[in-house]
Design goal:
The chain has a seven-stranded mixed β-sheet. It has helices at about 5, 20-30, 55-65, 70-80, 85-90, 190-200, and strands spanning about 10-15, 35, 50, 80-85, 95, 110-115, 125-130, 140-145, 150, 155-160, 165-170, 175-180. Residues about 1-5 have low confidence and may be disordered. The protein is globular. The protein is built from six helices and twelve strands. The structure holds glutamine (GLN).
């Protein structure tokens, strides 16, 4: 390992299914080392991990098949910063409205989510979100058959809501979740926000 590598964080992006490439591109555009994660051993080389959007039931099943579910859950419980976007947010949630179907979850973020929550009219849409943590300029983003956050636990901070109060971005310590897709927005502020969380624990 070179010294330079020690200084800059290395971010894993779970790359079993979904739009992991867009996250890797975003990280590359910020000059950050991003790694496509498919093997449990790779979890030892990273300082933070992003779980991308896609199909949460498929990603969950693949995590079992690739023997990643338990090791990743352990890593998150040990404190590695994690960010779930859309399907990734569902996988991080302690509870979903789909629990009876036995969907595998990492269950490490104290929220309950409702999948495909926006109905056929608003299934996919773009909007300008106010996210105080990112500064004054609104964050233009995309919802693609996204979930909503129905309830949050006492330690969970709400980072953004839609105009009607629907919770769409949350943080619980080093665990971040967004119901939308900042990786396709061209706006790097959410990725930079996650990188600041990673830097804060990397020491
Ligand atoms: N609807 C998908 C699910 O339930 C999430 C969609 C997405 O990640 N864009 O997993």
């Amino acid at each position: 390992m070179t010294e330079e590598r020690n200084l800059s964080p290395c971010i894993g992006v779970l790359a079993l299914q979904g739009d992991f490439e867009a996250h890797l591109k975003m990280l590359a555009s910020l000059g950050v080392d991003g790694v496509a994660i498919r093997l449990p051993e790779q979890l030892e080389e990273i300082n933070g991990i992003i779980i991308p959007g896609g199909e949460s039931t498929t990603i969950g099943k693949l995590m079992i098949e690739y023997r990643l579910l338990e090791p990743l859950r352990r890593k998150i419980q040990e404190g590695i910063p994690v960010w779930g976007t859309c399907a990734g947010l569902i996988l991080l949630a302690k509870e979903t409205d789909n629990a009876l179907a036995g969907q595998p979850l990492l269950a490490t973020l104290d929220i309950r989510v409702r999948r495909n929550a926006f109905g056929s009219q608003r299934e996919s849409f773009e909007t300008d979100l106010v996210v105080p943590e990112l500064g004054e300029a609104p964050f233009h983003t995309f919802f693609i058959r996204g979930p909503l956050v129905e309830t949050v636990g006492p330690e969970v901070e709400v980072l953004a809501t839609l105009d009607d109060g629907t919770i769409v971005a949350v943080r619980e310590g080093t665990r971040l979740g967004t119901a939308f897709h900042p990786e396709v927005s061209g706006d790097t502020r959410f990725h930079q926000y996650f990188l600041r969380i990673v830097e804060s624990v990397k020491g």
